[in-house]
Amino acid sequence: MSLIMKDVARKILMFMALLSAVSTVQARKVYVCDDPDQQAILPGVPGSREDGVTRFANKNVKYPLEAWRSQKWFGVEAMGLVDANGHVIDFELMADEEPHPLLMTELRRAIEKMEWYPALKDGVPVASWQYFYMPLTKKSSRSDYWVPLGMEERFDLTNLYAFKWEEPEWDHGTAEMRKALDCLGESTYLFPGYAPATIAYARLLAAQGRGAQALSQIEVFLPGYQANGYNVEVTEEGDTLQTGMSPEYSGRTEVWTATVRALLHDMMQSPGCASAYDDAISLTERRMIDGLLFPECTSKNDTWLSARMHNLKYIKDREHREVAAAAIRQEKADKRAGKSAETKDQQNLFGVKAMLLWLRDGDAGLDRWIGQIRAGKPSGKLLKYLSKLEKRKRENEQLLSDRRAVIVSLVCLVPPEGTDEAAANDFYARRKAVADVFPLQWLTE
Predict the structure, then answer these.
(1) pLDDT at 3
(2) Which bin fits 29, alpha (ψ -120 to 50), beta or left (φ > 0)?
(3) With 233 labelled, which of 67, 273, 311, 428 sits at a CA distance of 20 to 30 A?
(4) Is the pTM of this model over 0.90?
């Protein structure tokens, strides 16, 4: 539906809401002022109705779990009848469909608790119809994900299992494993698009010997995350341009998801293993060039090159366009060679690619690539970074010698089911060794 059509529909719904309330108003003998001198506002935020409603919703609304599972509303538009005492005595939702009955009951309970400063006419409080938008989700303090109101504790528990519970000091007994599996499994439905929940769930499934199910989770999730995270355009020169990024998108999360996908294919010795590694490496290389690791609304993006690529199509003079395109191609080649890898994020992307090449091709593949980078005259900071990586790899050589065991330590959220204490200690030691050499914590944090 176009924006014009939506606006017309909204106005019609507002008019119908007013008409439908006439009988109620007459029955209660409430005089409604059509043109008050001052509109009703919520206490505590004078002159800012939006902030007042948001604060009220955050404090008072609890989105019913069953309602969120079946129908996800991120907010509602409403017309509320605020009487001369500031109470909402009637309201109508401006929506094309009916909310879940449990959500409707919760909205009614919450809205009836609202206490407004009533509208004034000639200094006298009067009843009036007021439009307001009530959000039903709240931005998480730990990420850019919007959590249903009242589910913050459930979201925090999801993050505990996704980020902290895998550490060796936590209880990983049968009962706690069941809790973690139930929580993370449900979270993939409660918080769709939240990558840490899906990744942790897949890794826990792998630890329980359910690798096929784990891989299926990632194979379904990754394309959806990419499709909802940004749009892709292809320029006349054949370059891929990423546009319209969602605030919830993170390039670092995308690379980590692609890496987990490759590792799962590797652990299961799948025919798609080689292409999965190629996809992860190719994605890492694109982020080396465009620097799109964070949501577009932040200041952390290096979007200058992408903007220049986008503007190529507006250059009418063919010779000028070809010169500009050649300059962009050279800049992209320089970034791949590490000549402009000055920021910590860019350096860590080179570290991620080093890890993927080492996992795919072994020591020989990693050494060959680092040699190529050095021959390309990279920045001094990148040279120092790669030298440090090589040094730490030599220091952890013994723990990293069993490639298969390293793959398992990275794929599985916790030691595989049935692992004894000594093997579990080795499991965590190998993961720590990988994190000591490669930017694993940067990638997953």
Answers:
(1) 42
(2) left
(3) 273
(4) no
